[in-house]
C-alpha cells in the first residue's frame, strides 16, 4: 500500500473501469507500477470483499494524531478511549461504529492496553419532510442547509442563521425520525426570536447596574426573587444532567418553559413596573437586577453549546465584572448557580399563590371579555374574603404586601365580613369563589390612573401618584 501502487490502481480503474479488477483478461502489470513488473508472476488481485466502512472505520487515526500533536495522547490512552462521542445514523451499528472498533483493536498488540476509538455512541433517525416521507433527491423534497441559513422564499423558509439550524437539530427528538419543512422551521424562527428578546430585555435592564456596588445579598432578596432563583437553579441542574445524557430536546423544552412561563409571563411582567418606574437605585429595582445577573449568567451557560453565536453576542455586551473579563462563555466555563438558591418551601408557597392568581384571573377574564366593564386589571383592586375555616388566610397574610404586584392590580386587600358589607355593589366588576368558600371581589379603584406608571393610585387633585411624584422630584433635583 505505497503511493505508486495506489496511483497505478487508479490508472487501471481509469482504463478498464471498476469491473476490470475482477476480469481475468487484462495483464496484472496494468495494475502495478513498473518497478514491480518483475514480480508480476507472484502477485494476484484480491477478490475478497472488504468492509465497505473500512475508510471511515479508520478515521480514529486522525483523532489519535490530533491528540498526539496536542500532547494529549497519553492522557487519552490512560482513560481508555480517544473520542468522547461518535455520532451517526442508526444504520451504523454494524457499519462505522463496528468497523472503528475492529480496526482499532485489530492493530493492537497483546502487550498494549485496550484503547477504544470512542467512549459512547449517539445514534439518530432519518430526516423526513413534513409529510413524513424520507428525504431523497429523486423525490425532490430535500432542503439544503444553505436554505435554512440564508432563507429561501421559493419554498417559504425563513433565514435562521447558524444558531437557527443548530436550534432545529437540538430541539428535535433524534431518537426517532425527524421532520423538517417550512412550518417546522417557522416555529424554530419564533423560538429563536423569543430567546433573543429575552436576552435583549435582560441586557437592557442591566445597563446601569454595577455588580460590585449594587448587588443585593441573597438573604435580603424578597420572596419573588428567591422563587425565581430556586427555579433557575433547578433548570441549571437539569441542563447539566441532560447535556451529559445527550438529551438536547429536553434542554430546549425546559428552557422554553422557563423563558415563556416563569420569566416572560410572570417575573418580567410583574417586575417591569419596578424596573421602569421606581427610583433607579431603589431596593426592589436593584434586587431585580441582582437576579437578572444570575439569570443571564446561567442562561448563557446553558445556551452556549447550542446557540454559540447569540450567546457570544450577549457575552460581548455584558459588563466585564459579570464575565470576569473572559472573552467568551466557553473560556469562562460552566456557571453553577449556588445550592443556596434551592428553596422548596418558597416554591410550594408560590404554587399556592399561582392557584390564587389563576382564580383571580378567571374573574378578570369574565369582567373584561364577557361583561366588558373593565379594560385592564390595573383599573381594579382585589379583595379576598377568607372563609371561616379557610386554608388561604396564612399564605395571604404572609405575602399580602406583595400581592398587588403579583396579581397586577392597583391594590389588594384581605377583607372581613364587616368590610364586605360596606361595599357598594355598583363598584363591583366581578366576583368569584374558591373551593373552600373564600370569596373574590374585583372592585373599581378609588383612585385615578397615574400617567407615568399606569396604576390607578393617583389622587384626583394630584398630577402623579405618590410614588411617581417622589421619583420625578428626585430626578429634577
Low-confidence stretches: none
Strand percentage, roughly?
5-15%
Query: Number of folding domains?
Result: 4
Number of distinct helices = 20
Largest sheet: 4 strands, mixed
Helix content: 40-55%
Gyration radius, in Å = 33 Å
Overall pLDDT, averaged?
A: 92
Note the overall shape: elongated
Strand tally is 8
Distinctive features:
477 residues; alpha/beta; Isoleucyl-tRNA Synthetase, Domain 1; 4 domains; two-stranded parallel ribbon; 49% helix; 9% strand; elongated
Note down, in words, how this protein is organized:
The chain is an alpha/beta fold and 477 residues long. It has 20 helices and eight strands. The strands form three sheets. A four-stranded mixed sheet has the order 6-5-8-7. Strands 1-2 form a two-stranded parallel ribbon. A two-stranded parallel ribbon has the order 3-4. The mean pLDDT is 92.
Explain the layout of strands and helices.
Layout: H1 3-16, H2 54-57, H3 60-69, H4 73-79, E1 81-89, H5 96-106, E2 116-124, E3 127-128, H6 145-150, H7 161-171, E4 178-179, H8 182-204, H9 211-214, H10 223-244, H11 248-277, H12 283-303, H13 308-317, H14 320-323, H15 329-332, H16 344-370, E5 380-385, H17 393-398, H18 403-406, E6 411-414, H19 417-421, E7 428-433, E8 439-444, H20 466-476
Parallel strand pairs: 1-2, 3-4, 5-6
Antiparallel strand pairs: 5-8, 7-8
Helix pairs in contact: 7-8, 8-11, 10-11, 10-12, 10-16, 11-12
